[in-house]
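User: Run a structure prediction on this.
Assistant: Running it now.
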Amino acid sequence: MATVPPSPTDDPARDLQAATDLLRALASPVRLGIVRELSGGAKYVHELVAALNVSQPLVSQHLRVLRTSRIVTAQRQAREIQYSLTDDHVAHIVLDAIRHAQE
C-alpha cells in the first residue's frame, strides 16, 4: 500500500523552517532519549530520570524545550506531572534515526 505524502502548504520556505525547528528541538541525546521513552506511553518525570540515568533538573530542562516545541504535552496528576508525546510522528522520526545509527 502506497503512503500519501503530506500536502505542502502554500509556503515551502515555512515548511522547511518548521522542519528545521523540529530537528533543532530534537538535537540532544537527552531529548532523543525522552522521546524514545515516551514512545511507549506517558511517563512521570521520576520515571524518565530513572530510565535515562540523568538528574531531575536536567530532564526538566529538556522537557521544557520539548514542551515549547510542542513535541510533548504535560498533564498534572496530583503532585506529579505526566508527560506524553503530542503525536506519534516524532517518535517514528526518533526511533528511525536511532535504528539508522545502529546500522
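The chain has one domain: 25-102.
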